Each structure stands twice: as C-alpha cells, then as structure tokens.
Amino acid sequence: MSARILEIRSTHIRCLGMGNLNDQRDSSQDDEISLVDLARVLVRRRVWIFATFSVCVLMALAYALLQERQYNFTTSILIGEFGLDKTIAEARSTKNVLERRIAPLVERSFVDERKIENMPFATSVIADEGNNFVTLQSKASKEQQPLVVVLHSEMASALTRDHNEKLSLLERESDIRLGNLSAALATEKQQMARFQKLLSASTQVIRDVGVSDVGIKGDVTARADSTANGMEATLSSSSRSLTFLLSQMQLTEQLSKRQTRITELQGELESEELKRSWIKQTRAPNIATASVSPTGTGKTLIVVLGTLLGGMLSLFAAFFVEFVHRVKGEQLG
Prior knowledge:
This protein has helices spanning 2-31, 35-44, 46-66, 91-114, 145-209, 240-278, 299-332, and strands at 71-78, 81-83, 86-87, 123-126, 133-140, 220-226, 231-237, 279-280, 283-290. By secondary structure, the chain is of the alpha+beta class. Strands 4-5-1-9 form a 4-stranded antiparallel β-sheet.
C-alpha cells in the first residue's frame, strides 16, 4: 500500500515538473524577438524612417554649406637677445606677460573702439621651453583677417616696447664702452707716432755724428719727451754717439710698450663690437600669417556623420512610434 502511494506521488511530481517546463518554454517563446516582426515594424513605419533620415541629412548638409571656413592665423615674436643664447626674457615668462598683462588691455581697447560686446575670435599664446620666440594664434575666417592683423600688431608692439626699453640701456652701455676704447686706442696710436718720429730723428743724428766724436770729453744731454704722457728721459755720456744710442734704446722700449697696449685695445674693441652686434631687439617678422588649409571639421565629414546619425535616429524613431502605438492599443483594448 505504501509503495503504491509513493508511486502515485512520484508520478504527480513528474507531471508537475513537465508542466512547469512547458510553461517556461511558452514564456521563453513569448519573450523571443522575431526578425520577421522587426521587418514588419520597419516596413510599417517606413515613412517615419525616411522622414527622420531625410531631416538629419538635410540638416547636416545645410550646416556644412553654411559653416564659415576657419583658418589659423599666427604671428611669431622673436625675443630680443643681448648675447649668445642670452635673451631679454624667457619664453614662458613672455607668455605670462602677454596673457595676463598685455592681452586683457589690448582686447579691451579692441572691443571698445569697435563698440562690440565680445571678441569675434579667440587668441592664444604658445611658447615652448628653450625657444627664443612666442607665437600668437587666432582661429578666424578669411574675412576677419584684417581684424586679426590689428590685434596681433598691437599685442606685438606692446611687447616689443617693453623689451626694447631694456635692450636700449644695454645698447647705450655698449656704445659708451666702444667710445672709450676707441679714444684710448687713438691716443696710443698718436703717442706711438711721436715716438717713431723721435726714433727716426735720433737715428739720423747718430749717422751724422759718426765715430769721430768718440774721444770728445764733456757731458752731453739727450732728452726724449712726450707731451701725451709727460715722459722725459735724460741721458748723459761723454760721447755724443753713445748718448744718442742710449736715447734710441729707450725710445725703442717705449715703442714696444705702446705696440703691446695698442694690440690689447684692439682686441678689447673687437670683443665689444662683437657683443654689440649680438644685441637684437624683440621683433615680429610676420603678422597674422594664414594657414594653408582650413582648420576644424571638413564639410564631407559633417555630411557623413549626419548620414550615420540619421540612420540611427530613424531606426529609433520607427521602434519608438511602434511602441507608443501598441501601448495605446492595449489601453484601448
């Protein structure tokens, strides 16, 4: 009896299990998405698909055609130099000066003069560490190039005035040193010329006196003087020839000293002239040079992106309209 009861219970459990399995299969079949149903939805809502796709493509095409072509306008400002690898300011600090002090003032004046509320284009300052220049860059249309030229010119002029005031002091300092060295060199050359004349005169006297006066007794005095440096040499000897010979030796020594000094002054003068030639003022060799090709997104890319976006939005619109229609049908039913 008990075995019979157990058999009935196991049969009942198997029946219940099979029923649950069938219910799960039915529910899974209901939850599955049929490709045929999807195709029917797309065919049924083809008007929405076409309309949405057309609107997106037309909007993208209109935006691409109406969009102004933008160009990059650049102005390079070379920072002033006063020696080999010596600039009046570093590129980073020059960038900060342009961005924080010069640009706000120039842009405020630019806006006030033209009675507009905002700048018609944006301007940025680019500076790389180790370079001796900074770059002004503005993105604008070709029609706005004259305005970009005005703005860049005013910013570059303000910076060059600031830098060149400091460089002018260095230039005046160098000019003073060059003047002093040139004057000292001219003086030394004059003194050397006078000594050369005295030496020539002394040589001529020795030739005229000859050896006949070697035995003459008495004191003879020879003087060699230069008014430039107050030098006076007095030599005494019992022989005229010997006296003039000693005077000639002293003049030769003075000439050697003057020649050494002239060589030193010429070297210092050349060195200072070289340093003076290194002083170069801050300057802007080009103002608002336009880029070769336009910047930003191209028209073809805009149309392609609009087409892709239109395809996605059209499918979304079709299924959304179908969903709304079914919800309303269930509410009414």
